[in-house]
Amino acid sequence: MRSSSRDIWRRLTLAAAVVAVGALVVGGAVAAGGGNHAAAPWMSPNKNVEARVNALLSAMTVDEKLQQLQLFADYQATDDAVRNGLGSAFGITDPAQVNHLQHVAVEQTRLHIPLLFAFDTIHGFRTIFPIPLGEASSFDPSVASTDFTIAARESAAVGLKQIYSPMVDVSHEPRWGRIAEGAGEDPYLGSVMAATRVRAAQGSDYSAPDKVVTSPKHFVAYGQPEGGREYNTTDMSVQRLRNFYLPPFKAAVDAGADTVMCSFNAISGVPGCGNPQTETDILKHEWGFDGFIESDWTAVAELRACPPKNPDSGPCGHGVAADGADAARVALNAGTDSEMVSTNFVDFGKQLLAQHLVKMSRIDDAVRRILRVKFRAGLFEHPYADVAQAESKLMTPADVAAERWAAGRSMVLLKNSGGTLPLSTNLNSIAVIGPLADSKADSLGPWSGRGRPQDVVTVLEGIRAAVPGATVTYVQGCDVQCDSTAGFAAAKAAAAGADATVLVLGESADMSGEASSRSNIDLPGKQQALAQAIAETGKPFAAVLMNGRPLTIDALDATAPAILEAWFPGIQAGNAVADVLFGKVNPGGKLPVTFPHSVGQIPIYYNHEPTGRPCDTSVKWNSRYIDLPCTPQYEFGFGLSYTTFAVSNLELSSHTMRRNGSVTATADVKNTGSRAGDDVVQLYIHDPVASISQPVRRLRGFERVTLNPGQTKTVRFTLDAKDVGFYDNTGRFVVEPGAIDVYAGDSSSAALTGSFTVTP
Question: Are the CB atoms for 352 and 325 separated by under 8 Å?
C-alpha cells in the first residue's frame, strides 16, 4: 500500500544517509550535514527535482552511473542484476515480482535508487482497446484519450511507471506489419492522436498513482522501410523527414512525453540509435527534450558490423561500429541514454572514458536524464505497487463499457449497397460464417498487453446477444489461412438457409504487428473464394473485416453488398460489431490510411507530392500504370454511414493572411438522411507554387460531429503559419508568400474549394 511505502521509505532514508556519509568524503573530510536529508539530500521530497538529481549524481561512482544506463528484459532482471545497480527493467507485470525486485533495489543497493519498470502497453494493458490504427479511424481524440487513461491506470496498478507507447510512426507502407500500431499515413492526424495519448497517460503529473510516463516510438522514420520489410533501411530527404515523419514526435514531446525510444532502422545510412542529428541536434537541442532516450531491443549491439566482435556473438549488421565498445561509443555520443537488453554501455563504459572516446559529461548527462524521470515519476517516494488492490483496478465494468464504445466509433463502413445494413433485429435466422467469427485471441490484435482471450466477446457471441430471438447458425468455413475449401459447402448451405449472413474475414492477430510484413496483402488463402460461395446463394450478407493493415480487397468489393472494416476491435469486439451491424451504433469512422487496389500501387497515399506529368489513364506519357486506375480502392478519410451528409458553404474569414497572422475557415455540415449519425468534416490545403513541391493535399483540421436528421452544424478551423509553412532541405521552417488552396469535405477527395494569399 502507498502508506506503507512511505513508512518504508522514511526508514530507508536514514539507511541511505548512513551509507552516503561514507560516500561523500572528499580529501578525507566528511561532507557537512545536519541529519539524514543533509547527508543524502536527494532523499528529500522538499527539494526540487534538479537539486535532487544533482545531489544523487554527485554521490555516484562510475559503475553506479553506468548501471543506471542499463535496461534489462524480464528474463535478465535477476536479484543479482538489481543488487548490482540495474537502472530499469521491462516486461515484468506481476505486481508481487515488481515489488520483490523493487525491494532489492531500494533496500540492498548502496544509494537505494529505485528501478523504473516499463511495458509495451500499446492499446490497453488488461482492457484491450481497438488497435491504434482502428482508433485513428474514429477521427475522435476522445477515443485515444479514453484508451490511454485506462491503460495508464491499469499499468500503474501493477507497478509499471513507463509505457513504450504511443507508437507514432507515420507510414505509407501497408505491407509493414507495425502500421497496425500507429495512426496511419497522415502527420497531422498522427500528431493529434500522439499528443492526446501522451496527455491522457501522463496527466499533469505522472507521479500520480494512476499515471505513467510515455515513450513515443520509434524515433524516427521506422514506418517507411524499403519494401515494407520490418527493420529495413529508410532513405529520405531532410524536408521529407521533417514534414512527414517528425511532426507526431514533436507533438508528443510538446505534450510532455519524457522518454523516447530510438529506432532499429537506419535513416539515410545512419541508424536511429546512433544518429546524432535526430537524437541530439533535433530532439534534445532543437526541441528542448530533457528526458531520456532508450534504445530498442539490442539496437545498440546491432550497430556493429557482422560477424560480431567483442563480444563475438549477438546481433550485428548496420556496420557503423567495429565491435561492442565502438557500438557503445557511437550510441552514447549520438544521444542514446539507456541500452535495452545488450550490455555495451556497462561493459565498455569505463574503457571508453579512459580512452577519451566518451566524455564523463556525456555519461553524467545520460544518468541525469534517467534520474530526472525517476524523480518526476515519484519513485523515490512511492516505489511499490499495491499488490492487494492491483487486480481490482483492472478491467472494471466501466472500462469494458468504454472499450465497447471506442470500438464502435472506430469502425468504418466501406460499402453498403442497397441498404444491406443495418440488419433488422427481427430476422428469424442469421448465419455467422468465417475464420474470425468466433476467434477470441485474434479479436485482441497484435501487442495485446496482458489481455486475456477469455475476456473477449466474439462476433458470434455478440450477434447472439443482440438478437436473442433469432436462430443463429455458425459455420467456420475455413481457418484464417484458408488453405482448404472443405468447409465451404456447409457454409454455403447455412447462408442459403438464413435470412441474412455475416461473414467475418481477415487476418490473424499475428499477421500484423512486429516482424509481420506481408508481400501479398490480399485476404489470406481462399477467403475470397469463401465470400464468392456465400454470394452465390443470392441471400443478403455483410462482410466484416478484422485486420491490422489496409488489404487489397477489390474482389471482395465486387462480391459483398456490404463491407464493415472493424480492424482488431479488442475485448468487446463482438458486441461492438453487433452494435454497428444492427444499427444501435451508426458507423462514423473514416479511413486513416489509403486502401490500394493492388500491392503494385504501393506506396499510394493521399498527401503525395505532384509530378510534372500527373496520372491520367487516358494519356500514355504520364505517371500511371497501364493496368490500374490512378485512384485507390478507398481513399484516406473515406467512410460511409447509414445516413447521408452534405458539406457546404466553405467560407474564409479573409482572402489574405500575413505570415504571422491567421485565417478562419468555416463550413456547414447537414444530415440529409433519416437517421442520426456522425460525419467527420475535414479541411485540407495545398500550396500550388512553392520553392519545394508541396503535397497535393494536406489535412490541417477535422471535427467529428453528431447530427440528427435535418440538423446542420457549422464547423470552424483556424489556419496559421504552422499550417501553411513547411521545412526545406536545410531543416529550416519557411512560410512563403503566395496562394493557398483550401478544400473542405468528408474525405480527402473533398470538393469544396476556396483560397487565400499569404503576404509578407
Answer: yes
